[in-house]
Recover the amino acids of this structure.
């Protein structure tokens, strides 16, 4: 797999590039946001540091999400909850705080890659409708009253899982295991952040129904 490593620290970049190469990946390392945008379309996976010399990493993440939907993990020293939430809302598939164990990062890369591949293959040609919301599981698109709504990869993955069996209630643990690959993230706010993002971007608060103390279900909205 061809990795784009956006990292301005030479020692960290060398360690990451070496570990990734040992796993059979090819790595292009860039230092600046402008370089990352230039080479993003050539990559299959992105590792993104937030402390860049020419642009804040969160702003770069937002720009990247306008040109590609590649699997992306933020790897940064920023550990405040505000930073984590910003990264997830901007479209990161995962968020890893430095210092970290290399084995853990490699496992997270494998998980994100596996879940991303599975979500892209899921759904066949099905389109699910609830009220004026149309969810195309194959094309990975959402429209509200005919207007396209841009969700992050993770937001769409959550919505697609609920839409695949519209009447089923999915537990938090199941969603975290199926989408994040780790049911033990249940104590984190990652899932809640993505559900809030779906509701806000579609302007349909009832699109994702909360089953208190258990999980979520696709909401049965009134017709248009």
């Amino acid at each position: 797999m061809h990795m784009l490593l956006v990292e301005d620290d030479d020692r960290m970049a060398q360690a990451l590039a070496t570990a990734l190469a040992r796993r059979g990946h090819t790595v292009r390392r860039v230092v600046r946001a402008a370089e990352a945008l230039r080479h993003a379309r050539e990559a299959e996976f992105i590792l993104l540091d937030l402390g860049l010399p020419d642009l804040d990493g969160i702003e770069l993440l937002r720009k990247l999400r306008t040109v590609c939907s590649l699997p992306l993990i933020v790897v940064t020293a920023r550990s405040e909850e505000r930073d984590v939430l910003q990264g997830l809302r901007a479209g990161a598939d995962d968020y890893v705080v430095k210092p970290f164990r290399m084995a853990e990062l490699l496992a997270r890369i494998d998980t994100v890659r596996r879940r991303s591949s599975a979500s892209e293959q899921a759904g066949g040609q099905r389109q699910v409708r609830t009220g004026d919301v149309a969810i195309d599981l194959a094309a990975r698109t959402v429209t509200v009253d005919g207007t396209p709504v841009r969700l992050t990869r993770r937001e769409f993955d959550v919505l697609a899982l609920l839409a695949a069996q519209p009447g089923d209630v999915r537990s938090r643990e199941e969603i975290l295991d199926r989408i994040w690959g780790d049911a033990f993230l249940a104590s984190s706010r990652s899932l809640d952040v993505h559900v809030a993002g779906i509701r806000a971007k579609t302007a349909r608060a009832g699109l994702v129904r909360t089953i208190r103390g258990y999980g979520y279900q696709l909401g049965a909205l009134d017709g248009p």
